[in-house]
């Protein structure tokens, strides 16, 4: 499986909704257009909601990988408005 | 400057908004807003701006808190009676949000001090209750090229408009000159429903926030009126021709702020 190159990473496994998305959003706001953020999140609600919220912000979802430890990593490419 | 974890949590409901985000919140934290009048309008405006994390808030008022203020001026409490309003307002805002730096000006604005006072701020809120002050603030903001929110409240009615240099009429374009003394009662004489300050002052805070984050449409070129008894808002389009205005027109005759005479019965909010 090809590893995705990312520019920045953030771990939101210590947060619950809505702070999961807030923490991820603050991280992606710091990136330049086209850069990739890797977001590590817990299975369940974050996996349901964070990718959708990122998409609604206009960013591009590249991949969601199962880390097989109860967490997932979401790769998102920043799309500036 | 990155947001701290505490700030990310405090402002999370802002940051979630697409129109605000971390960038917009940082703009708010770096912004400077001056509120003239710590009364019915200034109280809710100051509280919402403090809660929103506007980094520097200036507040101007020469008066002390009176018992009759407390029915509407929610930034002051019963134990504040007798205290300068600016001190009471500062204490409330600092308790609400330690991110905010509050500058207090325990004085009346007049032609000699207003230009210098507004110069260091990004946006001005007119929370005064008398025509001389409203024309003074308008003229000073036009001359210093500062955006400001005008508002007025009386009885069950309120109104507001926003001036941004070069983007529409100023207050004087619309109202020309102060009315004759005694032609219009002040809210001291006429009364005002307490929540009116909350409605209109909060809308002034909303305009300031939108101006700072640079999103949405401001009330430039419009006067928004609110009749609480009929529960009617009206957005009235203002004349776009500003050429003949005495202060912001093509050939201004007013080049310095003017101290109009204050009706002796009038009282600052």
Ends of chain A: how far apart? Answer: 31 Å
Report the top-level CATH class of chain B.
Answer: Alpha Beta
**Oligomeric state as shown:** heterodimer
Detail the poorly predicted runs of chain A. Answer: none
Radius of gyration of chain A: 11 Å
**Major sheet details of chain A:** 4 strands, mixed
> What is the name of the CATH topology of chain A?
Translation Initiation Factor IF3
Q: Can you count the helices of chain B?
A: 10
Overall domain count of chain B = 1
By secondary-structure content and strand pairing, the structural class of chain A works out as alpha+beta
Number of helices of chain A: 2
Shape of chain B: globular
Mean pLDDT of chain A: 94
Order of helices and strands of chain B: HHHEHEHEHEHEEHHHEE
Portion in helices of chain A: 25-40%
| Overall mean pLDDT of chain B | 94
Largest interface: A-B, 11 and 11 residues
How would a crystallographer describe the biggest sheet of chain B?
8 strands, mixed
Q: What proportion of the residues of chain B form beta strands (DSSP E)?
A: 15-25%
Kindly, what is the distance between the CA atoms of the first and last residues of chain B, rounded to a whole number of angstroms?
A: 38 Å
Stretches of chain B where pLDDT is under 50 for at least 5 consecutive residues are none
């Amino acid at each position: 499986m090809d590893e995705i190159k990312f520019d920045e990473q953030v771990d939101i496994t210590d947060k619950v909704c809505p702070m999961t998305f807030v923490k991820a959003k603050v991280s992606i706001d710091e990136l330049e257009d086209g850069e990739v953020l890797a977001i590590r999140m817990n299975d369940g609600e974050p996996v349901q909601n964070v990718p959708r919220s990122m998409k609604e912000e206009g960013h591009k979802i590249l991949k969601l990988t199962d880390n097989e430890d109860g967490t997932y990593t979401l790769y998102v490419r920043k799309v500036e408005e | 400057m990155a947001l701290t974890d505490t700030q990310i949590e405090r402002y999370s409901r802002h940051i979630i908004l697409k129109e605000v985000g971390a960038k917009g919140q940082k703009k708010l934290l770096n912004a400077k807003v001056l509120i003239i009048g710590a009364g019915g309008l200034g109280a809710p405006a100051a509280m919402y701006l403090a809660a929103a994390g506007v980094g520097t808030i200036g507040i101007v008022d020469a008066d002390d808190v009176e018992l009759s203020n407390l029915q509407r001026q929610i930034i002051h409490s019963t134990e504040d009676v007798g205290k300068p309003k600016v001190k009471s307002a500062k204490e409330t805002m600092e308790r609400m949000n330690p991110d905010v730096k509050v500058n207090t000006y325990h004085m009346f604005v007049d032609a000699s001090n207003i230009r210098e006072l507004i110069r260091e701020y990004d946006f001005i809120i007119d929370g005064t209750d008398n025509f001389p002050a409203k024309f003074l603030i308008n003229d000073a903001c036009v001359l210093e090229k500062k955006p400001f929110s005008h508002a007025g409240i009386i009885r069950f009615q309120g109104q507001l408009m926003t001036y941004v240099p070069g983007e529409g009429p100023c207050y004087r374009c619309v109202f020309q000159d102060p009315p004759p003394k005694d032609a219009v009662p002040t809210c001291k004489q006429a009364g005002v429903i307490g929540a009116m300050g909350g409605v209109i002052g909060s809308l002034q805070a909303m305009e300031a926030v939108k101006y700072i984050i640079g999103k949405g449409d401001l009330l430039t070129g419009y006067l928004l009126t609110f009749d609480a008894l009929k529960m009617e808002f009206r957005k009235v389009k203002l004349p776009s021709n500003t050429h003949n205005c005495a202060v912001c027109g093509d050939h201004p005759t007013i080049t310095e702020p003017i101290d109009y005479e204050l009706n002796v019965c009038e009282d600052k909010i």
